[in-house]
Amino acid sequence: MGAKLDKSIDLTLCIPQISRYVKNEIEYKNNLNLMRKIIFEFIKNDFPKFNIGISINTRDDFDTGELYLTAIGSSIESGDEGLVGRGNRINRLICQVKPYTMEGVAGKNPVYHVGKIYSIAAQELADKISKKTKAYTEVFLLSQSGRLLVDPWRTIIGIEKDLKKEERIYLIKFIQKELERIPKITKRVVNLKIRIS
Question: What is the pLDDT of residue 75?
Answer without folding.
Answer: 66
